[in-house]
Amino acid sequence: MTYLQRLLEIFFISTRLGFTSFGGPVAHLAYFHTEYVRRRKWLDEQSYAELVALCQFLPGPASSQVGIGIGVLRGGLLGGIISFLGFTFPSVLVLLLFASMTQTFHLGEAGFIHGLKVVAVVVVAHAVIGMAEKLTPDLQRKALALIALTVTLLWAAPATQIVLMVIAALYGALFFTSKITTEASPLKFPVSRRFGAICLSMFFGLLFGLPLLHQLTSLEVVAFFERFYRAGALVFGGGHVVLPLLEQSFVPTGAIDEATFLAGYGATQAVPGPLFTFAAYLGAVMNGWAGGLLATLAIFLPAFLLVLGVLPFWTMLRKHPKIQGALLGVNAAVVGILIAALYNPIWTSTILQTRDFVFAAILFCLLVYWKWPAWVIVGLGIVGGMGMAWM
User: Fold this and answer.
1) CB atoms within 10 A of CB 251
2) Residue 297 burial (CB < 10 Å; 0-12/13-18/19+)?
3) Closest to 84 in 3D by CA, of 332, 327, 273
4) For residue 236, with 0-12 CB atoms within 10 Å meaning exposed, 13-18 middle and 19 or more buried, which class applies?
């Protein structure tokens, strides 16, 4: 396969995921796992789990960062860019269109959206089962996953996941080094450490330099870019956390009224792809399509810089036994966190009636036991959701 063919493959697959990955960050990771690990085998279970754990530690959109990382691993820097564009542009396009039709476009009320949410339940459940088998093979790690699940559900705070993973990493570094039975499969990240250091320098330079530049120039475009960049750089916990931060940045100042903001919030919940694309809607409402594209660039730029900055050093650090032990602990905790997310908000907001559970069970069996492809399950979800809306 030539390099061009590989890039086209990355774009085709990431774009298909961008059109079909409904359900939020956890569902996105499940779709990625199904496509990139189970089907394509671009990376193994352990490498994927480590990439997910690392991106959970970083601020920004974790699922987008995982997608960028996989693209870079597969096709270099250009592969990461193409993977990001493919996964992101479908929802950006829809939200840009929605920004000009906020009074007449009611995506959140469509019946097929509920069917796609049922598909998300099925895909996440499948991924969680597979990851649990691989990452929690003994009672000690099962107990760690159970603790993570319990704490995540009972202590619902943005910092919960970070605290849990730090504790799990420390526990793993102390007690799991004896469980390392195989050498970690090498992640061949085609970016130098020098380039990584430059990316990290740019990340912090923009974070602290943009506010200063705005003070010196008073240019509105600088303030516009800085608000979205800051949101993407400082948010831990995924897309749901960035929404209130953006509300605080733009609604009180009068840049956008609350009703328009909430309309965009509802549309963002209904479209596939990362929730950070809400920035495209806000930017378009305030400054047209150019504003929407600039806002999208600003809010996702920190994710790019962090992934490209951290991963070159990660390939070196992950070889250390203590680091590998820490990863075993973090991976077990991630299983618990994913199970908690499967319950709330995915299950609680989707399985509302007996027929929802029956439909989910049928789709689960078709996916897991009959081995039907994911895109067929998505199609059935759309048809079934529309059918249930008419009943």
Assistant:
1) 17
2) middle
3) 273
4) middle
Find the farthest-apart pair of alpha carbons in the chain and give their distance in angstroms, rounded.
63
The answer to whether residues 144 and 329 touch, using CB atoms and an 8 Å cutoff, is yes
CA distances from 353 to 54, 237, 364 (A): 37, 29, 17
Q: Using alpha carbons, select from 287, 313, 283 the residue that is nearest to residue 298.
A: 283
User: Quick check: 187 pLDDT over 70?
Assistant: no
DSSP alpha helix (H) spans, 271-320: 278-317
Among candidate residues 169, 164, 138, 140, the one with its CA nearest the CA of residue 153: 164
Segment 322-365, tens digit of pLDDT? 887 887 888 888 888 888 878 887 788 789 999 999 999 999 99
pTM for this predicted structure: 0.74
Short-list 336, 356, 15, 289, CA closest to 150: 336
Nearest to 242 by CA among 52, 24, 71: 24
| CA nearest neighbour of 324 among 172, 112, 116 | 172
User: Phi, psi at residue 320, to the nearest 5°?
Assistant: -75, 135
Dump strand ranges (E) for the chain: none
> Half-sphere exposure of 122 toward its Cβ, with a 13 Å CA cutoff?
31
